[in-house]
Amino acid sequence: MVVRSYEQLRVVLEKERRRLATAVARHPVLVREPAGYGNHVADDATDVFDQAASNSLFRKLKQDLDEMEAALARFENGTYGRCQKCGERIEWARLEALPQARFCLRCQRRQEIR
Ligand SMILES: [Zn+2]
Description:
By secondary structure, this protein is mainly alpha-helical. 63% of the residues lie in helices and 0% in strands. The site of zinc ion has 8 residues, from helix 4.
């Protein structure tokens, strides 16, 4: 798909947000964090591992969902496509690859170094 306008990016974001919201809703919510490593009996190891993997998947889904929602909110307030750090336009190619991007490439790189 060739994306040429912000409106199309918005459609992509909406779609992704819906997909993630469904995935989050279907995911069993885990309240108990794994008890810690190295202190459990061998039989529990798989359970603890599964739960840790499941928890981290859930967190990732939730985090992605938040990103999508934040990006859609920026459409609402007219700041979409602007870097939240320096205020410059975010590179089009970057938005195409990552419609929920908050920062321009330069600011993102700077952030990652820190
Ligand atoms: Zn920037």
